[in-house]
Design a protein that fits this description.
alpha+beta, 25% helix, binds nickel (II) ion, EC 3.5.1.88
Length: 187
């Protein structure tokens, strides 16, 4: 099932998401929900999606970099679902990449973040996993992790660039964004 994507200006994108309660969750429902998130992401031509972007303030994210593996070889086969992910280590060394976001249509900006992280999470079967990430794979996951803490990549761009995109952001928050996928704006 394809879900509408909440855009910039929506309150849910600014909330800190809550952990999924793994004791009480229906595992089959969770698996289905994760499939819906992937479907929604593919439909919108995205490479990552966090649950708050579909209006659900829980710590769940999905990424699939297969489509850009020609540019970033480390992304070959990099498809993950992460439940309750947490960064447990990050490098001091940083990297700069251009980012975009399905919740912030038509805006791309360079963002500086740690080059490598180690992340601990539960997979779609709630199996605990630890993984070291580098390169663009690391970048994709950090962008989605930000969503779970109520942050957006545009919060992290240089002030001068931020000024340049202010009018565009204002338009998105007014419901004027044009997208090929279904969106929702809820203050
Ligand atoms: Ni995003």
């Amino acid at each position: 099932m394809i879900l509408p994507i909440y855009v910039y200006g929506s309150g849910v994108l600014r909330e800190e998401a809550a952990d999924v309660d793994v004791e009480s969750i229906d595992r089959e429902e969770l698996r289905k929900y994760i499939e819906d998130m992937f479907e929604t992401m593919y439909h919108a031509d995205g490479v990552g999606l966090a649950a708050p972007q579909v209006g659900d303030s829980r710590r769940i994210l999905v990424v699939d970099g297969s489509d850009v593996a020609e540019v970033y070889p480390e992304l070959k086969g990099f498809k993950r679902a992460m439940v309750n992910p947490r960064v447990i280590e990050q490098s001091e060394e940083t990297a700069e990449y251009s980012e975009g976001c399905l919740s912030v249509p038509d805006i791309h900006c360079n963002v500086i973040r740690p080059k490598k992280i180690k992340v601990r999470y539960l997979d779609a079967d709630l199996k605990e996993t630890e993984e070291e990430l580098d390169g663009f794979a690391c970048r994709m996951v950090q962008h989605e992790l930000d969503h779970l803490d109520g942050h957006l990549f545009v919060d992290r761009v240089a002030p001068i660039r931020r000024k340049m995109i202010a009018a565009k952001l204002h338009n998105i928050a007014k419901g004027k964004a044009r997208t090929s996928y279904k969106t929702r704006l809820e203050k």
